[in-house]
């Protein structure tokens, strides 16, 4: 068995190296994230190390270019093999037996004395010739039956021959056919388990390869087991890795629920607040949503911000509001928030930008709760980064869970190496997905979250 270790800066790149050099039959033995040594522990870059194994296949001998090609030998049918191995020799033995019997018959006829009279000859001849004539007829019948069996046109296995009144010949022929049939049945009985074992091994290797790719996407073990169990019947039926990846995309798409675009009110104002930890890109996301609805959809939009803590946060949003010619309200208390909402009650959409809060600061989160609950029509979106580790994502959702969170909004997909955390967070906390952001450009780098898009990111990205 050939075992080799591959190193790359990205897990997806390491898997591509495995498939490029060892093919789809390679089996992933281990995968881990390491860090190269740097100066006093600094300036060290992480890398991924994947160990794969491949069972070598026997190499076919190279043909001699100077040797004349010989036509391949004609494969014999089962009937021809049976004829050559069993019925042919039996027919020759029967011919030899017939010749010996005929010779003995002629010898007996020549040495027999003429009968005394016609009556006695008829009486004696009737009793003496009957057995000899009957044996000769039986031998002729055996010959015909054997020759017809040898020259039969049937493509299947010959049935055991039965010869009436020939007790000596029947066991020989039947035994010969049984002797020929036993190796066939034995070979079939041996080949069936061997073929089944090979198919099971191939199925297991393909499933392990796909499971390794899903682990590289940082999907949880529970989700991986669920997906692999779903495609296992198709893998056992002989589906290729490409077909199984398509099934994974389809299955994962059915597991993910997305909220769709922001639904405007017919006779009222839609109010949307974006909350989340620090540094996830809430202000830029607010600007993208404002441009998406004001410039692209032609709706009247107003901006409100409570972010008086971060240096330059208000100035950044003011710049966006000035470019898009949108009103901006800066509030610091709950009554000011209520006044700003009342002042823009004629707008189609009000977007509220909030200050980032640490998930460990429960006091600040309770303060934020007063802002998002000051009006019954506020719909709260939790904004988190796709680069956040799964354990930290669970902590963020749990701490911000004291707020009336309605949707999840993931940012920085362009900076993430894997997307399984999005699936796990969505499935674990039962919060629909709303938008994905994929860069800093306003308003281009924002898109509506769809189940198909997320499933393609998780499955296809690691399969490139």
Explain how this protein is built:
This protein has three domains: 1-56; 79-109 and 128-187, no CATH class; 270-463, Rossmann fold (3-Layer(aba) Sandwich), CATH 3.40.50.300. The chain is built from 13 helices and eleven strands. The radius of gyration is 43 Å and the shape is elongated. 29% of the residues are buried. Helix 8 links the parallel strand 5 (301-305) and strand 6 (328-330). It starts with a strand and ends with a helix. An eight-stranded mixed β-sheet has the order 6-5-7-4-8-9-10-11, with helices on both faces. It has a three-stranded antiparallel β-sheet with strand order 1-3-2, covered by helices on one side. It has helices spanning 11-22, 78-111, 118-150, 169-216, 221-236, 241-255, 282-296, 313-324, 334-343, 362-372, 390-399, 420-429, 451-463; strands at residues 2-8, 27-35, 46-54, 270-275, 301-305, 328-330, 349-353, 378-385, 405-411, 433-437, 446-448. With 464 residues, it is of the alpha/beta class. Helix content is 52%, strand content 14%.
